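User: Let's play a game. I give you a shape written as tokens, and you guess the letters that built it. Ready? Here's round one.
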């Protein structure tokens, strides 16, 4: 048996023992949304416009217990969704989760990412791969099959760990492994050892303090604690190694899905000189500078890749913008109200004219921005602001 096969077996054993994520099963659609799992919202984020089709194929690569798969089904009512995972125990939970909530357009298979290239038919317009690549024996061998299964113009959404914001996790992982000795691989024992460490170490210990301030809420469940502290395989990235992985995929980097974080202005905005110096950096050096200046906050990277050609819409000219046909962003909560949550669950308070404009967008799916501005009394720049906030999408 190869080393990679041994690692895959160990990972499968962990998730058979502790199926992850441990979110509760519901007899109704899951609450809220993650806009990254909504095809229209993700496509709009990456291209600036609504996609031309909704009947897409979506792959949840490394679906675990189906938390993301369930959302992908309910948030994309015309899509067909496939979930794959290495753990049959996790897949049993995923199947039951989707059965109970009515997510009946999901099909599940037990396989590795490497096997997906030959065992899954056809291509996918959207592939979701959250919390998976960093647990593979060779992440490049995991991302390459996904790149091959991605349709032209398709999007790959990825979540991987970052090393700078997880330094304490790495240290505790090693400490638990040392104390387990020949019992490594006994995950219930690993959780027991880890729990005992956190309860015994001095309260001012930096590992204890970081656990309390950052991780303790989610780690109340043993499934989460095991996934974090006794996982048999983990690769943590920095900007340099992350882009080595991206380059190896052969796909194009579209952008981080939390672009506000990667703005140097939020860190050194009071220094015009430093901001100007930052503008002279390459994109990758710019990202590296941001993570170096805010290391504790970088616990993971979440981003989109695309298989060319993926063209973006340019709405910068007034003529183009006015001829666009607007509709409400699919991931807003609280509509129909002037006070609502946007796609990032940030509170937005609409003016009366903004509210009227958005009402007319919802009621008139074929009218242009220009027509609706005339009817609502909204100014052009106000409409642009709604678009920049992703409260409306254009086609």
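Assistant: Ready! My guess for every position:
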């Amino acid at each position: 048996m190869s080393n990679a096969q041994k690692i895959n077996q160990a990972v499968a054993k962990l998730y058979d023992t502790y199926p992850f994520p441990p979110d509760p099963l519901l007899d109704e659609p899951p609450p809220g949304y993650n806009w990254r799992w909504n095809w229209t919202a993700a496509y709009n984020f990456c291209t600036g416009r609504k996609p031309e089709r909704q009947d897409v194929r979506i792959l949840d690569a490394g679906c675990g217990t189906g938390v993301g798969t369930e959302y992908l089904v309910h948030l994309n009512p015309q899509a067909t969704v496939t979930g794959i995972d290495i753990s049959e125990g996790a897949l049993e939970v995923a199947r039951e989760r989707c059965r109970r909530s009515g997510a009946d357009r999901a099909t599940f298979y037990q396989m590795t990412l490497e096997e997906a290239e030959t065992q899954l038919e056809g291509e996918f317009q959207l592939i979701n791969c959250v919390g998976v690549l960093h647990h593979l024996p060779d992440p490049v061998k995991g991302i390459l099959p996904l790149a091959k299964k991605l349709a032209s113009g398709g999007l790959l959404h990825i979540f991987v760990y970052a090393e700078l914001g997880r330094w304490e996790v790495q240290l505790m992982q090693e400490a638990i492994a040392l104390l387990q000795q020949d019992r490594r691989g006994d995950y219930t024992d690993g959780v027991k050892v880890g729990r005992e460490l956190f309860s015994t170490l001095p309260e001012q210990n930096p590992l204890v303090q970081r656990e309390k301030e950052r991780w303790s809420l989610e780690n109340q469940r043993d499934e989460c604690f095991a996934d974090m502290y006794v996982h048999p395989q983990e690769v943590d990235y920095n900007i340099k190694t992350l882009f080595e992985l991206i380059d190896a995929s052969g796909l194009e980097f579209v952008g981080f899905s939390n672009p506000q974080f990667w703005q140097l202005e939020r860190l050194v905005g009071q220094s015009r000189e430093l901001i100007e110096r930052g503008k002279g950096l390459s994109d990758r050096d710019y990202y590296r500078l941001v993570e170096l200046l805010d290391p504790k906050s970088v616990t993971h990277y979440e981003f989109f890749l695309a298989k060319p050609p993926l063209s973006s819409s340019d709405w910068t000219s007034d003529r183009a913008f006015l001829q666009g046909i607007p509709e409400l962003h699919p991931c807003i909560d609280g509509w129909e109200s002037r006070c609502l949550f946007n796609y990032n669950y940030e509170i937005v308070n609409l003016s009366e004219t903004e509210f009227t404009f958005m009402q007319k967008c919802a009621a008139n799916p074929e009218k242009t921005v220009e027509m609706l501005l005339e009817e609502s009394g909204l100014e052009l720049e106000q409409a642009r602001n709604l678009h920049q906030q992703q409260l409306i999408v254009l086609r």
